[in-house]
Amino acid sequence: MNTQYKDEWHEISTILTRMPLHIKASDQAGIQGNAIFDPVGTNEYIKAAFIHDSWQSNIPIPAPYRFLGTDVDFAKAGIIIEIQFSNYPFLLNNTLRSELFFKAKTEFVGYPTNLIIIVTKALMFPASNSTLYYEQAVNQLTALAKNKVFDVPIRLVGLFEQQNTIVPIIWTEYLSKRYSRTVNTRVSRECEIIAGRSARSRCLLRLL
Questions:
Q1: Which of 17, 156, 26, 137 is nearest to 82 (CA)?
Q2: 28, containing H or E segment
Q3: Which phi and psi (to 5°) does residue 104 adopt?
Q4: CA–CA distance, 41 with 26 (Å, rounded to integer)
Q5: Whether residue 2 has pLDDT greater than 60
Q6: Is 153 helix (H, G, I), strand (E, B) or coil?
Q7: Three-state DSSP state, 22
Q8: pLDDT digits over 12-44, tens only?
Q9: Distance in angstroms (rounded) separating the CA atoms of residues 127 and 124
Q10: Dist CA 184 CA 68 (whole Å)
Q11: Distance in angstroms (rounded) separating the CA atoms of residues 60 and 151
């Protein structure tokens, strides 16, 4: 990370390190009711924390490039942050459009794009099918960097927790089980994170 952005990186790392794990019940066949990573609750926490630290959120993409999406998640001082918990192909959309913004010197909140930070969850968390995880993003971005596909500086950030330990979590139940963002109940609880059988296995999240 360029020392030019040490203050911004301190803000980012502090917010993400302090964030409790957000989980919910799965609605997928075969694992229905099991505790899984909650992208909606996580996004809400991150958005509130970043706005508190004066990051601008949901900044519209300039009209000539709107074919690549409607907005970027966060921006400040030349940094774009994308929170990527959706299906894995969207990572390439994020990086491609960031490369375009970088080369076109596209400004967000008064600064040309100089750096892209992508935040995603680790493989260790049970999650909805086909959603991006950190280790998968490492493989994609490493291959792209090795072959010099992009020039824009990219920093990838993974969300992890300690395994075989008990951590505070936020448990959310939504109004409807599938795709709802309307909170029915949201409570603080504790969760035991039980390591999987191998490094490539997801953990078991056991509510206490």
A1: 156
A2: none
A3: -85, 0
A4: 14
A5: no
A6: coil
A7: strand
A8: 999 999 999 999 999 887 778 899 999 999 999
A9: 9
A10: 33
A11: 23
pLDDT per residue as tens digits for the range 123-153: 999 998 889 999 999 999 999 999 999 999 9
Tokens of 193: 């994170």
CA dist., res. 76 & res. 33, Å (int) = 39
Q: Give percent above pLDDT 90 in the chain.
A: 84
- Residue 27: predicted pLDDT: 85
Handedness of CA 63, 64, 66, 70 (dihedral sign): negative
Select the more confidently predicted residue: 4 or 157. 157
- Displacement of CA 11 from its chain's centroid (Å): 16
Q: For residue 1, what pLDDT is reported? A: 52
Per the listing, tokens 């603080």 go with: 188
Judge whether 122 and 160 are in contact, CB under 8 Å. yes
Q: What is the mean pLDDT of the chain?
A: 93
Closest CA to 101 of 74, 62, 137: 62
Write phi, then psi, for 124 (nearest 5 degrees).
-60, -25
The pairing of beta strand 154-159 with beta strand 115-121: parallel
Amino acid letter at 147? N
